[in-house]
């Protein structure tokens, strides 16, 4: 019993440390499984031309011209540059908000940090929002449906879609080559 309480206390301490590290960053960030959004404030007098935002497949640099970047470094994973954007909008407190949207190349992984030298978060603690299959793009929806089908097949002791495909290919080959003996064939 004491072990469980201790691990819960340790867990709470780890979450608090992680939150403090994230709060200390000069930017805020959130993510979904498919994309990542970063925000930071700049003086309200600035315009888009006063900013230097450089988004590449594996690196990012963002800040005010003539100053050290607010965010600069190597991304932990690749992004789709053409689908990544940034905007500058007015905030209620006479500042402006820089919002950077990064489109993840791999839509099936959580990021531990925005840049590799930033403090990490424990991605195993992320609880994804429930999303409807109908809201996913075609490619992602297909992957999720295949994963769900394969999971159900495994639970019932039936072949996965890939295993079924291999068996179908073997059956077709056997029907085309009746002269061959497949009695000892093994599928790998």
TrEMBL record:
One cellular-component annotation, GO: cytoplasm
Compartments it resides in: Cytoplasm
Main location, first listed in the record: cytoplasm
CDD domains registered for this protein in UniProt: p23_NUDC_like (cd06467)
A Pfam family reported for this protein in Swiss-Prot or TrEMBL: CS
Alphabetical keyword list: Cytoplasm
InterPro entries, sorted: CS_dom, HSP20-like_chaperone, NudC_fam
Domain CS residues, every copy: 22-115
MF-aspect GO terms: unfolded protein binding
Segments of this protein annotated with the region Disordered: 1-21
Biased composition range(s): Basic and acidic residues: 1-20
A GO BP entry: protein folding
Protein role: Required for nuclear movement. May interact between microtubules and nuclei and/or may be involved in the generation of force used to move nuclei during interphase.
Name assigned to this protein: Nuclear movement protein nudC
Organism of derivation: Staphylotrichum tortipilum
């Amino acid at each position: 019993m004491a072990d469980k309480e201790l691990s819960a206390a340790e867990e709470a301490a780890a979450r608090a440390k992680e939150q403090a590290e994230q709060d200390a960053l000069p930017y805020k960030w959130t993510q979904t499984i498919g994309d990542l959004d970063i925000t930071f404030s700049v003086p309200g007098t600035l315009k888009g031309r006063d900013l230097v935002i450089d988004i590449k497949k594996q690196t990012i640099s963002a800040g005010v011209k003539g100053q050290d970047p607010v965010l600069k470094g190597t991304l932990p994973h690749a992004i789709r540059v053409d689908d990544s954007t940034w905007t500058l909008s007015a905030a209620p407190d006479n500042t402006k908000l820089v919002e950077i949207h990064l489109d993840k190349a791999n839509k099936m992984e959580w990021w531990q940090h925005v840049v590799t030298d930033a403090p990490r978060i424990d991605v195993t603690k992320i609880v994804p929002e429930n999303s409807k299959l109908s809201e996913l793009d075609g490619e992602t929806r297909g992957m999720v449906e295949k994963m769900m089908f394969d999971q159900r097949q495994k639970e019932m002791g039936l072949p996965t879609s890939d295993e079924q495909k291999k068996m179908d290919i073997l059956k077709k080959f056997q029907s085309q080559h009746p002269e061959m003996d497949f009695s000892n064939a093994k599928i790998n």
